[in-house]
Structure formats: structure tokens, C-alpha cells
Amino acid sequence: MHKIQKQILKLSTDKNLGELSLREIGKLIGEDNSPQKIKHHLLQLEKNGLIKINRLDKEIEKTKPGTSYNSKLVSVPIFGSANCGPAMIYAENNIEGYLTISGKLLTRKKDIFAIKASGYSMNKANVNGASIEDGDYVIVDSKCRSIRNGDYVLSVINEVANIKRYFADKENKRIILLSESSASLPPIIIHQNEMDDYIVNGKIIQVIKRPKTTFSKLKNLIYRREV
User: Fold this and answer.
1) Partner residues linked to 178 by β-bridges
2) Which domains does the chain have, with CATH numbers?
3) pTM value?
4) DSSP 3-state assignment of 35?
5) Which of 108, 116, 215, 223 fits 81 for a cystine, CB–CB 3.0-4.6 Å?
6) pLDDT per residue as tens, the chain (227 positions)
7) d(CA 65, CA 67)
């Protein structure tokens, strides 16, 4: 997230930004020379679901995680990406946006967040009948810390996020994180003396599949229908 957007979000906690001009908002965050820059970042925050702008009543408010837009839809905060292969993408506890999904897909609606999967090493996984492919979103139950063998988990290894299938090998005092892929990939082994650098951030309870039709193809399809 851009640093200006972070500053605007922080400011929105204490002030109703809708009552301020773009120049006034910029001045409060040290960016008073470019009102159009402030407007751009406000629109980006709105686009990503991080703020709600009521233009009629001149109100701008920060969106709360888990907000239900109606009885059927739930807003789930997105906390960046996690690698499905070797642990490479750093975990960041910053909300990048919100994923709005049907509440029927969730067994619980509190203490959950979404992570975008990166890589193909879990494309043979089976989470409620769904694999985990590059670009999919996984829904993580952050309060589920009693993980069982065979569960799919979001792990953090040396502050790096990773999606794998979990097995505790108590006999050999180690944790095995398995890939489930069409390719032959080695597991990640966490030995007992490395446990201080490893945590389970939650259990993966659902997968929201990436649309197969790209935006450009969809736009062309709409254009052909209109013609």
C-alpha cells in the first residue's frame, strides 16, 4: 500500500475526511502541494474497499473488517500474498483491500482474512473440493490454532508467508509442510531447533477461485454482444 494511502487511513480514524478539502487533507499529512494526488489516493482506497465515500452527505469512513454489506455478503480483509512453493513472499499485516463474498461460503465470519496465493505448488490440494492455484484467494481462520495433521495452513517461516499441508512428525520432533502439486516438489522440514522461527497463522477454511476469463476477454465479449 502506498505511504500516502496509509497516512490517509490513519487520519480517517480521527477525522471525517468528507468535511475537509483535498488541500486540507494533504496539509494534515504533509502533502499539501498536490490536491489531485490526494484525490487519486482517496479513489484508490475506495476502489480497494478500504474506505466508503458518501458524496451526498460528505462523509468518508474507514471500512471495518467483517462488515456485512447485507445479509448475504461479507467483507473479508486481504492481507497480501503468500507463496505456495518455497517460502519467498514476506508476510505483511497490512490490509490491501477487501474481498466481498457470500456468507454461505463461510463457516465463521469473525477473525478471518484472505490471502492471495502465489505459485502452483498446491494446485492438487483439496479444500472443500477446491484446489489452490496461482491467483486464487484462500480464506484463513486466524483463531484456529489447534491444527491437525492433514490440515491446510498459512505458515510464517522467518517472517515469510507460506501455504502448505501440515503434518507434525512427533517421533522425529519436526513439522513437515507438504506441497500438493502436479509437479514433484520437496517438502519443507521444520526441525525442533528451528521452531522459534515458525508459527501457524491459521487454518485455511475456504478457497475463492480466480475467474478463468480474463478482464480483456470479458471486455471483448461484452463488446461483441453490444455490436
Assistant:
1) 165
2) 3-62 (1.10.10), 73-208 (2.10.109.10)
3) 0.67
4) helix
5) 116
6) 788 888 888 888 888 888 888 888 888 888 877 888 888 888 888 777 778 777 777 778 777 655 444 446 788 888 888 888 777 776 666 778 888 888 787 776 778 899 999 999 999 999 999 999 999 999 999 888 679 999 999 998 888 889 999 999 999 999 999 999 888 889 999 998 888 888 898 999 999 998 775 545 545 544 444 43
7) 6
